[in-house]
Every structure is written in C-alpha cells, then in structure tokens.
Amino acid sequence: MVNLPNCPKCNSEYTYEDGNLFICPECAHEWNLESQNAGNDDELVVKDSNGNILNDGDSVTVIKDLKVKGCSSPIKKGTKVKNIRLVDGDHNIDCKIDGFGAMQLKSEFVKKA
Fold first, then answer.
1. Per the database record, which ranges form the Protein YjdM C-terminal domain (predicted)?
2. In the predicted model, what is the mean pLDDT of residues 51-56?
3. Distance CA 110, CA 64 (A)
4. What percent of the chain is modeled with pLDDT above 90?
5. What are phi and psi of 10, to 5 degrees?
6. For residues 19 and 108, what is the distance between their CA atoms, to the nearest angstrom?
C-alpha cells in the first residue's frame, strides 16, 4: 500500500494522487510535494497604506472618503472597520461596515488601527 501524506489544510488521511498533485476529497485542497516542502511561499500577504502587514481579524481605519456605487453617502474618512477578512483579488479586504453592510475594500485605502 502506498503511504500518501495527510492534507496540510484539514489533516485528512483520505488524500489521493492525480498526476503530480495530491488532492483532499474532504476540503478540495490541492498541493504538490515540492510546494509543501518549500514552505508556504504563496501565502497571501496584504499590507495597509503604511506598509504594515494585515491579518484576518484585525481592525482598520479608512484613510479617505470612499464613494460607494448605488449609495448616496460615502464611507467617511476615519471610519473604523473591525474583524476584517483577507481575500485574494483586486479588493483584498472583506468586511462589514455599520450602515453599509458587507463590503470589499482595497488595502491601499486603510491603515491598521
């Protein structure tokens, strides 16, 4: 029997090999041994306007008035946003803002609180 590695994301033992990739059927994570052994070089790094590294769950402050499509009032400078979540993409911060609801912000318009 072939000894396959456990999933690095959810630690499931039910992984299988597909070509040069290993796949976890429980969380759908795909990886190859070279990237796993080299470390997480593809880790998402998001920096605020001052160059501070942001993490999930941080609080940030908006540094300028931001216009919102479909809304008559902008998000004001100085608005504090709690419990952010980092995502990959152009707008790399997912959050909820009081009075506006769920939003996506660019990290260049916030600073770490």
1. 46-113
2. 92
3. 8
4. 52
5. -120, 0
6. 40
Please report, for residues 10, 11, 28, the alpha-carbon distance to residue 33 in angstroms, rounded to integers and kept in the order given: 16, 15, 16
> Any bridge partners for residue 23, and if so which?
16, 30
What's the CA gap between 21 and 52, in Å, rounded?
A: 34
Q: How many Cα atoms sit within 13 Å of 3 on the Cβ side?
A: 0
pLDDT at residue 9 in the model: 84
Distance between CA atoms of residues 97 and 95, nearest Å? 7
Strand order in the sheet with 110-112: 80-81, 60-62, 110-112
- pTM to 2 decimal places: 0.62
Pairing of strands 21-23, 16-18: antiparallel
Alpha-carbon torsion, ordered 105, 107, 109, 111, to 10 deg: 120
Q: How many CA atoms lie within 13 A of 86 on its CB side?
A: 16
As a whole number of angstroms, the distance between CA 50 and CA 41 comes to 23
